[in-house]
Design a protein that fits this description.
Elements: E1 2-11, E2 14-24, E3 29-33, H1 40-47, E4 55-60, E5 63-64, H2 69-75, E6 76-79, H3 91-101, H4 106-119, H5 135-147, E7 153-157, H6 165-180, E8 184-188, H7 192-198, E9 201-206, E10 209-215, H8 216-226, H9 230-238
Parallel strand pairs: 3-8, 3-9, 6-7, 7-8
Antiparallel strand pairs: 1-2, 1-4, 4-5, 9-10
Length: 239
C-alpha cells in the first residue's frame, strides 16, 4: 500500500533521511519512532508532498508520489504535528471548506460531515469558532478533516499532542478501527505507550537511517531477552 524505496533527503551536505526502505500493507498500523532530529517529520513531509525527494521513490497504491502526485494526494489523509486551522471559521465552516478542497460530491458532503462530527464527538463545538476550541478539540477537528474524503492512507505526525484522556481514547479507538477496516496508518510519535498499545508494525529511525522495521512482536521478544521495558529498549537501540 505504502512503499518507500531507497528514500533520501539532503539539505546541502546534510543527509536528513538516508536510503530508507519501508513497505506497509493495507490494514497495518505502523508506528514510526525515533529521537528528535532522527528524520521522522522529514520522511512524512516527503510522503505527503511538502518536501521534494532528493533520491528514491515513494509509492501509494502502486502510484508514484511524484509522477502521480494529485492522485496520490487524494489517497492520503494528513494530520501534521502543528496543524494550521482557520480560527475565525466554525467547525462546520472548516469541514465544509475541507470538503471543497477534495471536490467531494455536494450530495454527500452533509452526510459525510455529520458522520465525522458523530465519530469524533464534536457536536457541542460544531457551530463555535475554532478560536474557542481547546487543544484537544482542535486536534479532533483536524482528524475529522483528514478522514472526510475517506482516504486509504493516513499519515499522522504526533497524534497525541495536547490531547486530554478522553480525546486520546477516542483517537486511539478510531485508529484501531480504521486499521481493522483496511486503512493503512503511518504514525510518527514519541508516545511509546501508544505504539505498544495499538500498533502491529514498528519502524525506528535514527540519524536518518532505519535501525528497526518489523512486527511489534519482535520488539516484545527483544524486550524480554534484554529484561528491559519498552522505553529502555528504545533508548538502548537509539543511543
Amino acid at each position: 500500500m505504502l512503499e518507500i524505496i531507497n528514500l533520501c533527503k539532503k539539505f546541502g551536505q546534510f543527509s536528513a533521511v538516508d536510503q530508507i526502505n519501508i513497505k506497509i500493507n493495507a490494514g497495518d498500523l505502523y508506528g514510526f519512532l525515533g529521537p528528535n532530529g532522527a528524520g521522522k517529520t522529514t520522511t512524512i513531509k516527503m510522503i505527503v508532498g511538502l518536501y521534494n525527494i532528493t533520491s528514491g521513490k515513494i509509492k501509494v497504491n502502486q502510484m508514484d508520489s511524484v509522477l502521480d502526485s494529485l492522485e496520490v494526494k487524494r489517497e492520503i489523509g494528513y494530520i501534521p504535528d502543528q496543524p494550521y486551522l482557520y480560527d475565525r471559521l466554525t467547525g462546520q465552516e472548516y469541514l465544509a471548506f475541507c470538503a471543497g478542497l477534495y471536490d467531494l460530491d455536494k450530495k454527500i458532503v452533509k452526510s459525510k460531515i455529520e458522520e465525522m462530527v458523530e465519530l469524533f464527538k464534536i457536536e457541542e463545538w460544531f457551530y463555535k469558532r475554532i478560536e474557542e476550541y481547546s487543544q484537544g478539540m482542535k486536534q479532533r477537528i483536524t482528524f475529522a478533516s483528514a478522514f472526510l474524503h475517506d482516504p486509504s492512507l493516513l499519515i499522522i505526525d504526533e497524534p497525541m499532542i495536547g490531547l486530554d484522556p478522553q480525546s486520546a481514547h477516542i483517537v486511539k479507538s478510531i485508529l484501531k478501527q480504521s486499521a481493522a477496516n483496511g486503512k493503512t496508518i503511518f504514525m510518527s510519535t514519541h508516545s511509546l505507550n501508544v505504539v505498544e498499545e495499538i500498533c502491529n508494525r514498528v519502524g525506528i529511525i535514527n540519524k536518518g537511517v532505519m535501525i528497526f522495521d518489523d512486527d511489534i512482536s519482535k520488539l516484545h521478544v527483544m524486550k524480554t531477552e534484554m529484561q528491559n521495558n519498552f522505553e529502555e529498549l528504545f533508548i538502548e537501540l537509539t543511543s
